[in-house]
């Protein structure tokens, strides 16, 4: 390790709203934890994402607000970028689809595909709402999914079974705005000829050893049904102008340009971008929720194949299952869930990061519930981890002169404890490598539990009276285990572990994974010792819920969407 090269991408959020906790663990936060782990390994990492800002939903909302779409997305991009910083997301580049680099790259990339004959035109019947007098974009047509029978499927995708759809396929199509039956009129559109790429895509998916089971199964099912040409142009104005001859006035469909952002964001970041995107040895990993599987596992690889420009195909798409909120789907309209701005007003960000990774929906849907969250905070973060760290550091400060004691003459039990801690960190390493972030975290937590058992068994407070040297030996080994704990937890709770490094007298935070294995330096002077976490009791929980209501009441009064976002450093 240490000589690997990675492009890490998290799904581009559509910024007509801020992400909620489910979006966060499905993409941005998981990607950040993985990127931070890789950097500790000394790997060469470029971690990118950006605001997905084009397309009809934002165009329509801006129109309703009486402002330009660009004004709307300028503000929202600024707000969302700040929220990600407050969540300690370590992007190397968080950009946007209005970035000139992205616009220019997208147009050139599509012309290259066009010149290679993978773009075809079709005259198409599009839905038109006679009552609203507008052409209806795909997602503004709703009806019954022909595959699974879900009655509120959108014309671009079925939320229930995840399949990509065309409005024509919906049974009983209706206008999403007014509910009337759409008429069909003719317009010309440019299509990606996915059918010609089907064999290549099938091999890419079948032969890929890294894809999670949900991504593989969903993609193979879609390929089996036959990949049909997909329209990549739209009749709206807010987007990237389609570059094809005769396509004046059309734009590239948002879904087909935002995925190219993983490349343009690296171009924008580094003049050496081809070192990443055109080197066979680069590992390219996307973090997305399962609803984003088709565009990352089928469409983007297909675009790269059609372009023929020597781009490396993605290594894998780390797709999670859904996170629910108290047993039900997050819903913006019903205000069901917690959004990432509100979360910042309730608890420190590392509490959220820890809890979300601890319950990350890796193999099945999981639910965020306050009961579980408080149990994780109070029992795991506070009792298992926080208390262990505090016991060790305060003992060294008050009984050992505030400096790491010498190793002395360890007994087998001391050495066995360190071996067990190393084995647990090794287990965490294997899990991190396989992007099993939840299991990695659970393995690291075991180090603290072992540590508490070790202290109880060795009782250094008794030894200090009878055999002070042996008490020092115990604290030396306990301190060493804190280094392992700190390195293992750093990707998940970077701010808190940086603070702990300061208390341990080790500087601003762990820099390498190997640091954990190196024995401590006796004589290292500790800094100020403060509790890492605190328990959240009944009263504090009630206060939090009251604060959440206040935040929501303030948001409800906002005139514009970007004002309906809670930013803690501006809070009164
Ligand atoms: Zn369906
Ligand atoms: Zn209508």
Give an overview in words:
The protein is of the alpha/beta class and 572 residues long. It has three domains: 5-112 and 253-326 and 338-344, 3-Layer(aba) Sandwich (Rossmann fold), CATH 3.40.50.620; 116-231, Methionyl-trna Synthetase, domain 2, CATH 2.170.220; 369-516, Isoleucyl-tRNA Synthetase, Domain 1. The chain is 46% helix and 13% strand. It has 19 helices and 16 strands. Strands 3-2-1-13-14 form a five-stranded parallel beta sheet, sandwiched between helices. The protein has a four-stranded antiparallel beta sheet with strand order 5-4-9-10. Strands 7-6-8 form a three-stranded antiparallel beta sheet, with no helix packed on it. 47% of the residues are buried. The model has no long low-confidence stretch (mean pLDDT 95). The structure holds zinc ion (2 copies). Residues 129, 131-132, 175, 177-178, 180 line the site of one zinc ion. One zinc ion binds next to loops.
Number of strands: 16
Low-confidence stretches: none
Q: What count of helical segments does DSSP give?
A: 19
User: What would you report as the Rg, rounded to the nearest angstrom?
Assistant: 26 Å
**What is the CATH architecture term of the largest domain?**
3-Layer(aba) Sandwich
Q: Any idea of the CATH class of the largest domain?
A: Alpha Beta
Strand order of the largest sheet: 3-2-1-13-14
Please describe the biggest sheet, giving its number of strands, its sense, and whether it closes into a barrel. Answer: 5 strands, parallel
Mean pLDDT: 95
In this entry the ligands are:
zinc ion
| Fourth-tier CATH superfamily name of the largest domain | HUPs
Q: What percentage of amino acids are in beta strands?
A: 5-15%
Distance between the amino and carboxyl termini: 47 Å
Shape: elongated
Helix percent reads 40-55%
CATH fold name of the largest domain: Rossmann fold
Which class do the helix and strand fractions yield?
A: alpha/beta
Question: How many structural domains in the coordinates?
Answer: 3
């Amino acid at each position: 390790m240490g000589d690997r090269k990675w492009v890490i991408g998290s799904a581009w959020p559509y910024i007509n709203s801020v992400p909620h906790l489910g979006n966060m663990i499905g993409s941005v936060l998981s990607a950040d934890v993985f990127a931070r782990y890789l950097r500790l390994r000394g790997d060469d990492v470029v971690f990118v994402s950006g605001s997905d800002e084009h397309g009809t939903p934002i165009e329509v909302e801006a129109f309703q607000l009486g402002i330009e779409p660009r004004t709307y997305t300028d503000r929202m991009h600024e707000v969302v970028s700040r929220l990600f910083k407050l969540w300690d997301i370590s992007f190397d580049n968080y950009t946007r689809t209005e970035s000139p680099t992205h616009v220019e790259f997208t147009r050139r990339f599509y012309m290259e595909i066009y010149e290679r004959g993978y773009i075809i035109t079709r005259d198409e019947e599009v839905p038109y709402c006679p009552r609203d007098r507008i052409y209806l974009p795909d997602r503004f047509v709703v009806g019954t999914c022909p595959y699974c029978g879900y009655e509120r499927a959108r014309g671009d995708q079925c939320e229930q079974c995840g399949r990509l759809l065309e409005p024509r396929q919906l049974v009983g199509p209706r206008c999403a705005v007014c509910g009337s039956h759409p008429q069909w009129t003719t317009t010309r559109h440019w299509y990606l000829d996915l059918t010609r790429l089907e064999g290549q895509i099938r091999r890419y998916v079948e032969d890929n050893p890294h894809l999670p089971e949900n991504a593989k199964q969903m993609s193979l099912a879609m390929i089996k049904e036959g990949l049909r040409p997909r329209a990549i142009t739209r009749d709206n104005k807010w987007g990237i102008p389609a570059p094809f001859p005769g396509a004046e006035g059309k734009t590239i469909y948002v879904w087909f340009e935002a995925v190219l952002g993983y490349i343009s964001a690296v171009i924008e970041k580094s003049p050496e971008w081809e070192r990443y995107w055109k080197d066979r040895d680069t590992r390219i990993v996307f973090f997305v929720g399962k609803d984003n599987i088709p565009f990352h596992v089928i469409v983007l690889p297909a675009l790269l194949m059609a372009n023929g420009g020597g781009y490396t195909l993605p290594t894998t798409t780390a797709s999670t299952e859904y996170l629910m909120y108290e047993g039900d789907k997050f819903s913006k309209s019903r205000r069901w869930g917690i959004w990432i701005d509100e979360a910042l007003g309730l608890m420190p960000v590392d509490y959220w990061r820890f809890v979300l990774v601890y319950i990350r929906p890796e193999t099945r849907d999981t639910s965020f519930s306050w009961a579980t969250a408080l149990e994780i905070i109070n029992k795991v973060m506070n009792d298992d981890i926080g208390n262990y760290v505090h016991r060790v550091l305060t003992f060294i400060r008050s009984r050992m002169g505030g400096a790491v004691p010498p190793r002395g003459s360890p007994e087998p039990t001391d050495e066995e404890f360190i071996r067990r801690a190393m084995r647990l960190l090794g287990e965490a390493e294997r899990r991190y490598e396989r992007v099993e972030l939840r299991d990695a975290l659970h393995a690291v937590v075991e180090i603290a539990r072992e540590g508490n058992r070790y202290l109880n068994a060795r009782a250094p407070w008794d030894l200090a009276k009878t055999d002070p040297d042996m008490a020092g030996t115990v604290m030396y080994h306990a301190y060493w285990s804190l280094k392992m704990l700190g390195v293992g937890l750093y990707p998940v709770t970077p701010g808190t572990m940086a603070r702990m490094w300061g208390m341990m007298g080790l500087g601003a935070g762990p820099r390498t994974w190997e640091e954990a294995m190196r024995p401590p330096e006796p004589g290292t002077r500790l800094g100020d010792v403060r509790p890492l976490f605190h328990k959240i009791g009944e009263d504090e929980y009630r206060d939090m819920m009251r604060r959440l209501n206040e935040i929501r009441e303030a948001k409800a009064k906002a005139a514009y969407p970007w004002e309906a976002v809670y930013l803690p450093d501006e809070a009164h």
